[in-house]
C-alpha cells in the first residue's frame, strides 16, 4: 500500500535486488511529485508538502502493479533522521528487498518524529498496554469496571460525573474519552515537562532553514526538565493494590493482534487549567489536528509533525539551568485516533494522551479491537457487525430475528431472537469468485407483515466514504450511476454501484471488506418505516458491468428501531393519592401499608428481554417488595417478566404488560400492582421519615452487531416520601 508522509524528506534508492522492473511514485506533494525509476543510480528526490504519499511498484511483465511494502523504524545519524521502506514484488520470494528506499530529513528543534507498532486487544479485560495505569477506554470497559468494588470506588473518586446511567442508549455515540487512574503514583496525570535541545553551533537565528543545516560530526542532544509552576500531587485515595490484583487476574483473558493497514490520526492536546493544577484527565482541553499516518503490514508506522518557535517555553519556568547553546521546547501531549470513515465523526477509538513527547519517540499504540471483519471464505456476505454468517452458531428465523451463540471471541453479541437496529455494518468479499469483481450493488426489499409478500427490489444508495492512503479526507466508493447487468442475462440497466476495493493497496486494508453501513432507520425508500422484515442482496459485476455468477448473496433482517414504552403515572397508599410532591403517612394504614402502583412496560414487537417494577429507599438502595391483593381482594399484576429462549427458528416473544403476557392489563396496556415490603413495614421502628422511588425499567433484545444484544431502558421513576 502507499506510505503516507508528512513534511520535507529526501527519497533515495538504497538497493535493488529484483529481476522485475521497479519504480516508485510520489503524489500529493507540493514539489517532487512524479514516477521514478527504481535503480540505485536514480538521483535522490527532494519532496516537500504537508501530506503526501509514496508507492513502490513492480512490473512482472504485464504492466506495473503495486508492491507490498513495510517500513523500518527511524534512526539518527549525521544529524539526519533516516528510515527505510522495503518492498516485495510479484516474484516468488517474500524477502522484502526487491526495492528498498531510504527517506531522510534533517534533525531540527521544531520537528518531531513518533513511530512504533499498533495493536488491538479484545476479551473481557481492561487496557493491557500501560501497566502503570488503570485505563478505561470504552463504554464496555467502564461497565465492567463498575462491577468491581475497588475499581468503582476509584472511578467515583476521580471521575464522579461519569458514574451515571444513561436512560436511553445512544445509537451512534461519539468516541469514548478514556479515563486514567494512576497505579504507581499520586499524580493523576504526569507533570508537564519541556526538553532542552542542543543543536550544532550556527548563526544565532531561530529559523527552520538554519536549524536544518547538516553539520557532520557535531552532537545533537536532548534533555528534559519539569515546569516548576504546576501542582505535584493529588489527594485522591485509590486502592491501587486491589485494582492491580484484579488487573493481574484478568490480564490472561486479553488477546492482542496487529493492526495492519489502519489509518491513524494524531492531535496535540493542551491541558486544561484544572489538569495543569493536578486534576484528572478530562479530554476537554484544546486540540490541534497534526495529520495522519497508516500502519504497514506489520502494524508499524512513522509520523512527523512540526511545532513553531512560539511553542518554546520561557527559561525561567523550568527547574534546571539552560546552557547558552540550548533551546527550550515544550514537550507536546499527543492523542492518537484510530480512524473509521463510516463511524460517527470518522473515529473508531481515541487513545489517552501520550504525555511529554520528545522530538524522537517510539510510541506503541493500543486500541480496542475495531469493527472490522476479514474474508473467511464461504458466502459473499461474511458478517453483520461482529456476528459471522454461515456458521452453525448464527441462526436467523424466517423473519430475520437473529440468534448468535458464537463464543469464539468474547465481544460477539450473544443475541437471542433479537431485532436489528441503528447502523449495521455489512462485511463481505468476492475473493472466491471465478471472475474478478470490480464493483457491486446492494438492493433491498421490504416484506408486508400482514400479507407476507415482499415488495420490489430497490437500490441501496447510502454514501460510502472509506480511507484511501495519503488522503486526509475519506474518498467515495459509491454510489455511482452505472449500467450493469443486474439480472443475469437481462442486459445492462441503470444501477447504483459501489467500487470493490478488496486487496487494493491504494486503500486502507482495514476497509477492504466493508461493503455497506446500513442505517436501518433510513433508506431510500425507507427500509423499515415501521418494524418488520427487510432483505438485502449483494451482487458483484466485472469491469464491463457483467453479472458475475457466484457473486450473489442475500440476508434477511428484522428491523426494529422502536424503544420500550415505559410509564409510571400513579402511586397511592390506601386513599392517599400521590402527585408532584407525593407524601404518604403510615398513620391509619394497615401494617404493612399497601401501595397501589399503575405502570406500563411494553414493546409491541415482543423484543423485551425483561421488565421490572422495583423500589429504592433513601440512600440504602434496593428495597425488597412483594405483591399482595388490592383493597377489594383484586389480584395484583406481575412485578416483572423475563423472556425465555427456547428456539432460534421458532422465536418466542415478550411484550410486557399487555396480553398475552399480562392478562390483567387494561386497554392501554397499563397494569395495577399492589405492593408491600417483603418484610416489615416501609419505615423501621423509630424511623420518622424516608424518601422512596418506585421504578420501572426494561431491556430490549436488539443488536447492531456489536452491543450486548440486550439494551437497558429506564428506569422511569416515581418519587415519594413516607412518614409515620
Number of beta strands: 52
- Write down the overall mean pLDDT: 89
Proportion in β-strands: 35-45%
Global shape: flat
- State the domain count: 4
Structural class: mainly beta
Rounded to an integer, what's the Rg over CA atoms? Answer: 31 Å
Helical amount: under 10%
Helices, by number, come to: 5
Poorly predicted runs are 202-218
* Largest sheet: number of strands, sense, barrel closure: 6 strands, antiparallel
Measure the end-to-end span: 76 Å
Structure overview:
With 724 residues, this protein is mainly β. The chain contains five helices and 52 strands. 5% of the residues lie in helices and 41% in strands. It folds into four domains: 3-106, Calcium-mediated lectin (Jelly Rolls), CATH 2.60.120; 123-368, no CATH class; 381-559, no CATH class; 565-723, no CATH class.
